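Notes from hallway chat w/ T.B., transcribed later so I don't forget. T.B. wanted the structure written out for a chain they're using in a teaching module, and asked if we could keep both sequence and C-alpha cells in one place. Agreed to drop them here.
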Amino acid sequence: MAFPDYDDVLMHYGIKRRSGRYPWGSGKEPFQHSGDLISRVDELKKNGFSEKQIADELGLSTTDLRMQLRVANHERRALEADRARSLRDDGKSLNEIAQIMGYKNDSSIRSLLNESTAASKNRAKATAEMLKNELEEKGYLDVGVGVERELGVSQQTLREALFILETEGYNVYGIGVPNVTNPGRQTNTVVLAKKDATYSDAYAARDAGNIKSVVDYYSEDGGKTYRKTQYPESIDSKRVMIQYGDEGGAAKDGLIEIRRGVEDLDMGNSHYAQVRILVDGTHYIKGMAVYSDDLPDGVDIRFNTNKKSGTPKMDVLKSIKDDPSNPFGATIKANGQVEYIGKDGKKHLSAVNKIKEEGDWDTMSKNLSSQFLSKQSLSLMKQQLKLTYSDYADEFDEIKNLNNPTIKKKMLLDFADSCDGAAVTLKAAALPRQTTKVILPVPGLKDTEVYAPTYKNGEQLALIRYPHGGTFEIPVVTVNNKNKKARSMLGTDLLDAIGISSGTANRLSGADFDGDQVIAIPTNNGRVKINSTPALKELANFDPKVAYSTEGKKGVKLMSESQKQKQMGSISNLITDMTLQGAPFSEISRAVKHSMVVIDAVKHKLDYKQSEKDNGIAELKERYQGYKTEDGREVGGASTLLSRRKQTVQVPERQGSGRIDPDTGAMVYKESGRTYIDAAGKEVKATTKVNVILNAQDVRTLSSGTPQENAYADYANKMKALANDARKEYLNTGNLKKNASAAQTYASEVESLNAKLDTASRNAPKERQAQILANSKVKAQIDENPGMTKSEIKKASQQAITDARATVGASGKETRIKITDAEWDAIQAGAISDNKLTQILRYADTDELRQRATPKTTTQPSTAKINRMKAMKASGYTVGEIADALGLSSSTVSKYLA
C-alpha cells in the first residue's frame, strides 16, 4: 500500500486507494501480530539489510514499511502499558515490574503508566475512532490537505489514522474535485469512505455534493470577503421609461440612466457599472448604468434601445430565467449588491445588481491576441513576438539568479508551465500604454473623436473589439476631452471607460452600450503603426436583422444557442484563414456578413442557412480551408496554425503526472497500456487528448506556409524550448538546508510563520467543500436543463461558487501569507525546513517573494534585460516607460540603448 502523499497537491487524478496486502496487520484485530513485524525488521537490520532491502524482502514500499512500523510500535506500547497497569494492580512495585518486563529501570515503567503519555502515543488511534464516528454520520469525508490542522493533529498522525482505518477495511480514495469555474483544472484530495463504498461510489458522492467536511462550516458572511448573493429586489415598471431608437435611443443602445440620489437604485461607490435590474418580478433591464440629472418627473430609470416606438415596454425588457437562484442568467459579482438604510431604519437591498463595475475592466489582460496581430503588418507582429519572448527570457534570467533554492524551484516550474501556455495561446506583449476600456455613448461626439480622460487631449487611439473581421473594423480616433456633453454626462474621472459616438460603435463590429469593451492603443504620434482601412462598402447599410428575418416565414430551421457557439468558431476560423492567405476584401466581406448573421441568429431568429447559401460559405471553406495532414489525408476546417492552435490530437493514455527528461527538459510520460472494447467489439488502446502545438516536435509542421504563421511557429518553438530550459534548471537546483541554530535564533519568527501557515491551510478544506457544493448545484441545473449552453453553464458556475464560498466561509484573499522582513531573514538563514517553506509558498505572494529572493548587488543589467530594453524601444516605448517597467534609471536605459 502506497499511502497518498499530502505534500503533493498534484497527486495523480483518479488513482484508487492504495490498496494491497497487509502481511503484518491482517486479521480481526489490526496488528495483532505487530511484534512479528518489529522482530522481523530488527532481525534483518542485524543482518545488514538497508531500509529499502527490508521493504523489498517484506513486499512493501519504504513508505508502507515506515507506516506499519509506526503503527506496530504504538500497538506494542499499548499492550505493554496494559500489562504494566495489570502488574501494578497486582501490587507489584515499579522495580519488580521493570524486572518482569525486561526494562532496565523503573522510569520506563512510570512512562508506560503515565496516562497523558499513553494518550499522546495513541493519538492516531483516537483520530481513527473519531473519523469512524464522523463517517457513520456523513458517509464520505474529505481528509485531504489542511484537514489535519482543523483537527489539531500532525500530518503524520492523520496519515497513520487513515492507515489504521484501511487495515480495518475502510477505503481511502484519491478523488479529483473539478474547479467549477475553470474547466479542465481540478484539485485532488483524499476521501475516506465506508467499507462497502467503491471507487465509483465515491465519485458519485462527489457529483452529488455528498463528500462532507470533517469539521462543519457555518459562515454566512463569506469569511469577510464574500457575501452570499440575495434574490434581487424588484422595482415597479411605472418607474421605467423607454427611449426608443427613433427617439434617440439607438445612439445609446444599452445605456441605463438612473436618477441620482434614489436610495433603492444606489450603485455604491461606482460611477458606472454593468448591471441587471429586476422589474415587476418578471423582467429585467440589462446594460451599462450611469447616473443622470435630466430624467422626466416620475421617472427613475431611462433605458435606451434601438427598438421602434410602439414596442410594448415589457417586450423591450428581458424575461427572467426559470432559475430561482439566478433569474438574470448572469453572475452577480462578489459584493455586487448594495445595501442601504431605509427611512424605517432597517437594511434594504438596492435593486441594482452589478456584473462588473468601475475598475474591473482596467484589470483585464493587456496582451495582444493573434486574431488582431495576424491582420497587422508582418513587422509589427514580429516586433511584438520578439518583445514577448524578451520579457520571458528576462524573467527566466531573474529566476535563475534567485538565492533561495526552494523559491527558485517553485518559480521555475511555474515559469515552465507559463511558457508552454504562451506557446498555445500565441498572445503577444501589449503596445505602449495599451488599456482595456468599456464603451459609453456620447451623443453629438464626432465619429473621428473619443472622450478618454486617461489619455492626453489630441492623442490618437486605435480601438479594437473582439471578435473583428479585419482592419476595416478598427477605427482610429482623436482624443477630445473638451467635449462639454461628454464632461457633463460622464464626468472627468473615468477610470476604465471611454465615450464614443454611435457611428464608432457600429464600426466596432456593431458594438452597443450594454458592457461591450475595446482595446485602446495610442499610436504615439505615428510611432506605433496600426493598420486601419476604410469600412467595407459591401457592409454599408447591411442589417442582418432585416436581411434575414424569419418573420412571416414558415419551416425555417432556427439556430440553437449551442449551434451558435460552434458556428461562430467556424466562421471566425474561416475569416482568419482567408485573411492570412490574402483573400480579397470582396470575399472576406461575404464571410463577415455571414458572421454578423450568425452572432444575432438566436436572439433575432434569423435564417442563417439562407445567409450561408447567399454568401457562398461552403465555396469559401473549400477554397481556403482544405489541407493535408501529416499522413497525407485531405481534410477541411481550420487550415492555418492560428485557427488550429486549440485543436487536440490523440496520444496513448498517460499514467501519472510525468517526469522531466534530464537531457532535454521535456516532460516524459509513461503509457498506461490500458485497452478497452469499443462499440464495434474491437479491443483498442486507451488514448488521451493533448494540445496539437504542445505535441508537435516542430510547430512549423502545423503552418500552411504563410509568413505570419511561420513567425508565430518560430515564437512557439522558442517558448517551448524556454520551458524545457527552465525544467532542466529545476533539476539542477538543490534544496534549502535547515539550520538548527537559526531555528533557535529566529524562534519567534518561526512561530509566526507557522501560525500564518495554519490560518492559510485551514482555508484549503473549505475551498474544496465550496467546489464540491458548487459542482453538485451546477450538475443539478444541467440535469434539469439539458440544453444549457457553455455560456449559461459558465454563468451558473460563477454564481454557484460565489454562494458556496459564502456558505462555508472560504476566503483565499483573507488567508494569504504576508512575510515580514524578520521572517524573510529567518527563511534565508534556514530556520525552517524546505518542506515547510514549500507549504508556505502555496499561500504567499509570488511577486513579493521573487523580489525578496533576487540579489540586490547587480552592477549592470543582464544580457536578457538589455535585449528586453531594445525590444521595448522597437515597440514604441519611451525611455521613461522602459525605465519604469524595468525598475532602472532613465540614464541607465539610455546608456544601454545607445
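Follow-up for T.B.: Residues 62-89 form the longest helix (28 residues). Might be a good example for the class.
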